[in-house]
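testing teh design pipeline on a random one, pls ignore if ur not involved
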């Protein structure tokens, strides 16, 4: 049984979808989502019918009660939760089933990334409860990178943590990658993009400052910059582009469902987040053979270990500008994704973990 938010089509949802796709031939799945959205649509297309318990119309108590009923009905061998709220509610529903099942069903969670902000007020209680159920009611915490495993080791004992890197379905991704309308319309331009939520942690502001430097000092490249994603900073970032005088050379695409085509249509992808786990966009970029210029932080250092010249230590507009220009001025070998980041490897390791905790081998 997988319990997932499903409100966004972001890294956690993309990874959950990829894992479920490659698990469905080996296990019987029950997938519970807290929101209707793109994830539910894509799962239905796979032949997986998720159960929706909308968090917008159900209280936490109602969700626990409905999860309790689903656990009693499905009788899962393993419960796998994703994100904080799902960790808590899924674990409490599992605990409530103990008198009926005679035991706590083995449960794991995936830590998809480090917290993006310090909790305040009621958020502190939720964060504490999340950590408590992770330590007491769940068997394992899956970290998507070795760096993230080190970070959460301050919260969970080492024996509780296992590293399973996110995986990409390379062949399926390549079939979805087609030239976009802007690549077809402007093949003469150098298209540089950033893909992600328009939230503070993603540092789109640095990307725009970098764009301004490149447009002012290296206009011969005929640059055009693409921001693909949506979020609360959209208006702020739009104003920043205007104030920098670069709005004519920047396109805000909002949320797009054709991310493989967007990646394939860019000459380089920039990732200047303050921190990351193992971002799916980074893996998809390498899987499609495109250059990724990324902040040397979190799991990005592991993803680009074979391409150290693409890692940026100077976390500033000038740092990314310099690294991008250096990369584009040289000829490099073909970019490839390491096997440990492929979907089949991720599913195999996850299934092995399920089997271990089911049979009490760990």
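output:
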């Amino acid at each position: 049984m997988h319990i997932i938010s499903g409100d966004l089509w972001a890294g956690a949802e993309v990874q959950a979808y990829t894992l479920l796709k490659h698990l469905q031939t080996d296990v019987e799945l029950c997938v519970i989502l807290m929101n209707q959205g793109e994830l539910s649509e894509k799962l239905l297309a796979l032949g997986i019918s998720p159960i929706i318990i909308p968090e917008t119309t159900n209280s936490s108590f109602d969700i626990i009660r409905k999860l309790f009923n689903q656990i009693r009905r499905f009788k899962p061998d393993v419960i796998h939760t994703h994100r904080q709220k799902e960790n808590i509610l899924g674990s409490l529903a599992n605990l409530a089933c103990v008198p009926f099942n005679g035991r706590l069903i083995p449960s794991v969670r995936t830590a998809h990334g480090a917290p993006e902000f310090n909790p305040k007020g009621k958020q502190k209680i939720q964060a504490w409860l999340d950590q408590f159920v992770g330590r007491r009611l769940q068997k394992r915490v899956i970290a998507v990178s070795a760096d993230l495993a080190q970070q959460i080791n301050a919260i969970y004992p080492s024996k509780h943590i296992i590293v399973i890197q996110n995986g990409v379905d390379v062949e399926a991704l390549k079939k979805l990658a087609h030239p976009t309308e802007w690549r077809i319309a402007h093949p003469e331009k150098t298209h540089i993009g950033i893909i992600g939520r328009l939230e503070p942690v993603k540092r789109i502001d640095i990307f725009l400052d970098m764009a301004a430097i490149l447009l002012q000092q290296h206009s011969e490249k005929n640059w055009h910059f693409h921001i693909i994603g949506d979020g609360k900073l959209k208006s702020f970032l739009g104003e920043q582009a205007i104030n920098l005088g670069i709005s004519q050379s920047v396109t805000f695409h909002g949320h797009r469902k054709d991310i493989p085509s967007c990646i394939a249509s860019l000459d380089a992808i920039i990732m200047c987040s303050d921190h990351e786990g193992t971002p799916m966009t980074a893996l998809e970029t390498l899987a499609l053979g495109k250059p990724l210029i990324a902040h040397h932080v979190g799991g990005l250092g592991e993803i680009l270990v074979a391409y150290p010249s693409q890692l940026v230590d100077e976390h500033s507009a000038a740092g990314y500008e310099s690294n991008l220009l250096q990369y584009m001025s040289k000829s490099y070998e073909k970019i490839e994704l390491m096997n440990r980041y492929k979907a089949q490897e991720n599913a195999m390791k996850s299934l092995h973990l399920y089997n271990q905790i089911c049979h009490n081998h760990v």
